[in-house]
Task: structure prediction
Amino acid sequence: MGRDPKLWELGCRDDPVRNQVVLPDLIECVHRLSPKLIGDIGSGTGYLSRMAAAHHRDPAQWFLLERDPRMLQFASEICAAADGLEVVEYDLMNPIREWDQPLDLAFSCFSSLDFGMTRAVARRLVDLLKVQGSLLIYIPDLLEEVEQSCKLEGNLNALEFYRRGEFQVQKPDHFTKRVEPFFADRIEKYISNLLATGCHLQALRFLDRGSDKRIIAMEFSRVT
Result:
């Protein structure tokens, strides 16, 4: 059973990181790039897409790509009366069909923590895009998680796993309190695997989230 969509939606509404850090950066990118077809990868309840769409000056079609049936149902109900928002059942890890509406912009806000950034995942992400399309990935600064694990365990094992690109964290979900695993992949692994697909790294931003912590925003462009 996946995450509780009601708790997830409430958590998103109250989350200063999403609302005060990620959302302004996403809105700026959408205004700058003026995409017509936008994909929200691992959209959950679609909160970020709904908020960003409300600020977008130009008409655009937003595809909320999600695999969790309960999230899909919740998002479908809340987006039913909204123009330009389409909820789509899509499993990035096991796609049953090729994506046939190449996107001008795709973005992932923390959803890559659920599946990691292997070469195969990078290829599937880029295959969602048009040539010259853009990919935005938001992740926390995962070295902060590694540092915390080292302190809790009293050793450097977490740092060694992270160095090799094999570190997974088990911790309560911030919104639902349910213990979830997530992949703490090095930022170099993200960049290397996406560059190998024929992308260019257009920008790398460290967004201040307060308390000497950051959100990392990676912006890629598909060139082949």
